[in-house]
Design a protein that fits this description.
By secondary structure, the protein is α+β, with helices and mostly antiparallel strands. The radius of gyration is 24 Å and the shape is globular. α3 packs across α6, α8 runs antiparallel to α10 and α12 packs across α14. It contains 14 helices and 7 strands. It folds into 3 domains: 68 residues, no CATH class; 102 residues, Tyrosine recombinase, N-terminal domain (DNA polymerase, domain 1); 180 residues, hpI Integrase, Chain A (Orthogonal Bundle), CATH 1.10.443. The strands form 2 sheets. A 4-stranded antiparallel sheet has the order 1-2-3-4, with helices on one face.
């Protein structure tokens, strides 16, 4: 008997987990079958999710590389034309810029970050060549963009690749004090779809979701309830230790700090968040029922990492089954900001509550607003 789970790409057969994913149409010629099925040789939910994440990452890396190498015309023919002049330069090569970037930025980053940076730079080197950073031209970057799009990559993937390359070159320029432009810094990206719009969840749908969460009353629903009335990012909530939840304080709140298994996105992300309405209910349920783990959400979090991708896929699927509109989990964060605006909450407080980057130097001075002030405004916003 096959027991299908509400987890993307995983199912159980005779108690053992299997990974299953359809081969993309443009890559079917590389496979003998239209679906990849792998026995994970484990009965553990956590081990299966960890293995699934690793397989998905490796498949994504491989499929991207295959798409990029399937060129009808060798890349060098597109770049090295008669008008192209490679000037003599003492500035670092792109590969050396990558070394500098990983030396400075990659110290506390995981394998995925390092592998992604290396992969993206290699794409450029394979297509254009390993040139000094001042020898790349804006037309090279535009040709590289078109090349990636022609290979069938989504515009969101192309943007992510360019963002990585841009950061690597920018850091090299700043560190060396070089007087040159970053050819990849202002490349136009066409709006051709491929990215899911993160719609703000409106008040009526929010109340519907929260009611379902109370009825089902399990760990994934506690997570959704926490997100719905806190404005937290999914990864922030997933990485909470139980000791981060402060219910015995005069004002119940969450102390959001970085952990070895989950870093925070920005400096502003480290903050205190009052617990109100459904987020307060969720945290009470977490501490009442979760006695065997230091984590608030052990289904998705271990001492090594937070499986945000797995959680996002499962929760988005559940949302889709309950609501007509095509919402995603991040829509709770958009809705949180909209509700705060509706009660005329000052923008500084909105940014403080949501951990959004400060918009001016002045906003960074002082300790921020007290929990009492934050709680009053959040109470008003969650009444909408």
């Amino acid at each position: 008997m096959v027991d299908h789970l509400n987890i993307s790409y995983l199912y159980k057969k005779c108690g053992v987990y299997y990974f299953s994913k359809r081969v993309p149409n443009d890559l079917k010629s590389h496979y003998k079958t239209s679906r990849i099925v792998i026995c994970l040789r484990t009965k553990s939910n956590i081990s299966a999710i960890r293995s699934k994440k690793s397989i998905l990452q490796k498949l994504d890396d491989y499929w991207t590389s295959v798409r990029i190498t399937q060129m009808k015309i060798p890349a060098i023919h597109l770049i090295n034309d008669n008008d192209r002049e490679i000037k003599s330069s003492n500035l670092p090569l792109l590969s050396e810029a990558l070394d500098t970037y990983l030396k400075l930025k990659g110290i506390d980053k995981g394998k995925t970050f390092i592998r992604g940076a290396k992969r993206n730079i290699q794409y450029v080197i394979d297509f254009i060549g390993d040139l000094s950073i001042d020898n790349y031209q804006t037309k090279d970057a535009s040709a590289f963009r078109d090349y990636l799009l022609d290979k069938g990559l989504l515009i969101s993937t192309v943007k992510r690749i360019f963002s990585s390359i841009r950061s690597i070159v920018n850091l090299c320029i700043r560190e060396g004090g070089y007087n040159c432009i970053n050819a990849f810094s202002k490349t136009y990206m066409p709006d051709i779809g491929g990215s899911k719009i993160r719609k703000s969840i409106n008040s009526n749908d929010l109340k519907t979701v929260q009611s379902f969460c109370r009825l089902e009353d399990d760990e994934p629903r506690w997570l959704i309830s926490l997100l719905s009335d806190s404005g937290m990012r999914l990864s922030e909530a997933l990485g909470l230790a139980k000791e981060d939840i402060k219910l015995d304080e005069p004002i119940p709140h969450i102390r959001l700090i970085p952990h070895p298994w989950r870093r925070l996105k920005t400096r502003s992300s480290q903050r205190y968040i009052p617990l109100v309405k459904e987020s307060l209910w969720a945290c009470k349920r977490i501490l009442e029922h979760n006695h065997d783990s230091i984590f608030s959400f052990p289904r998705y979090t271990s001492i090594n990492q937070c499986n945000a991708n797995s959680a996002s896929a499962a929760l988005n699927k559940w949302l889709k089954s309950k609501l007509i509109d095509d919402y995603v989990i991040h829509g709770f964060r958009h809705g949180f900001r909209d509700r705060l605006r509706a009660v005329e909450c000052p923008s500084e407080i909105i940014d403080q509550l949501g951990g959004w980057s400060l918009k001016s130097v002045g906003q960074g001075y002082g300790k921020g607003y007290a929990l009492t002030v934050l709680t009053i405004l959040m109470d008003e916003a969650t009444m909408i």
